[in-house]
């Protein structure tokens, strides 16, 4: 499993594809033993699968009044009810951040590479469970929108596009075409219909009040898992000396006072994101790029976790 750990400044396609083996036995959803032949496999911690419209029929005693089709009722002068069926596949959208701020690393790999490797691993697990895989990848030129599909090739297609977006990164300088996190979340609200699950992987460097509002609106009708990625240097400045970092091809010397101010700002933002997730009932995970991925996913999403 160590050979599957992310490394370097850019993703390696063979490494992303190889995560398929490591994804066996993983599940984003807490599972249970079905109590009947018709029981679903997903526990109630996350909402059920999305509902699809089936038909309209005359109202019957006991029907939920919230399902009354008022247009048909007005046209026929008799109450009619909408019927829905549960989707057989849960749509899961992977929101993976590949914007310029993710193009940074002080240890084994850049944040962008770590996020891509985690996204690839989890997308394989969703595909293996028979659920739909879609993607909303934020990158240097905007947002790559891939609608959720149930095909076994959906995860493969997402990973190829993720690899392409990663290799568009050239420097930490922001692009005029980049989407903000708030805009990205607004795109997600439009793309994910009620009942879908969103997996958001980002460093949240541009988190603000608008992001919190959008996330709250998403969580009303969907389920969200948040993975906040950071570099160890962002959290803690080692030692008391200056450190030279690259920014846009130029070396910038950061003194300890400036670095510690940066650390405080990072901590305040991280705590704000975590607190928001706690208020909204969102599963939140904080990872730095030095955290081995394989043990992490086994601990939180392995088969033993869901027994």
UniProtKB/TrEMBL annotation:
It comes from the Bacteria. It comes from Simiduia agarivorans (strain DSM 21679 / JCM 13881 / BCRC 17597 / SA1). This is DUF58 domain-containing protein. Pfam families: DUF58. InterPro entries: DUF58 (IPR002881). Residues 55-247 form the DUF58 domain.
């Amino acid at each position: 499993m160590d050979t599957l750990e992310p490394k370097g400044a850019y993703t390696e396609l063979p490494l992303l594809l190889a995560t398929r083996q490591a994804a066996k036995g993983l599940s984003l959803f807490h599972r249970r033993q079905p109590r009947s032949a018709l029981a679903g496999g997903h526990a109630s911690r996350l909402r059920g699968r999305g509902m699809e419209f089936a038909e309209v029929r005359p109202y019957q005693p006991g029907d939920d009044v919230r399902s009354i089709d008022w247009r048909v009722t007005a046209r026929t002068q008799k109450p009619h009810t909408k019927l829905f069926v549960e989707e057989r596949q849960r749509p899961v959208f992977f929101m993976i951040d590949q914007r310029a701020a993710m193009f940074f690393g002080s240890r084994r790999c850049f944040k962008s590479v770590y996020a891509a490797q985690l996204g690839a691993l989890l997308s394989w697990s969703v595909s293996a469970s028979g659920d739909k895989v879609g993607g909303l990848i934020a990158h240097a030129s905007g947002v790559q929108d891939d609608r959720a599909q149930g095909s076994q090739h959906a995860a493969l297609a997402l990973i190829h596009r993720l690899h392409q977006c990663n290799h568009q990164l050239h420097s930490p300088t922001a692009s005029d075409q980049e989407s903000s996190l708030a805009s990205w979340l607004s795109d997600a609200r439009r793309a994910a219909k009620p009942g879908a699950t969103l997996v958001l992987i980002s460093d949240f460097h541009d988190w603000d009040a608008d992001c919190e509002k959008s996330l709250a609106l998403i969580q009303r009708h969907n389920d969200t898992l948040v993975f906040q990625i950071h570099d160890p240097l962002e959290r803690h400045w080692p030692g008391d000396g200056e450190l030279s970092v690259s920014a846009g091809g130029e070396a910038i010397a950061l003194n300890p006072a400036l670095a510690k101010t940066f650390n405080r700002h990072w901590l305040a933002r991280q705590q704000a994101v975590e607190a928001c997730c706690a208020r909204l009932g969102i599963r939140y995970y904080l990872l730095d790029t030095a955290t081995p991925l394989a043990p992490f996913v086994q601990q939180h999403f392995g088969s033993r976790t869901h027994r």
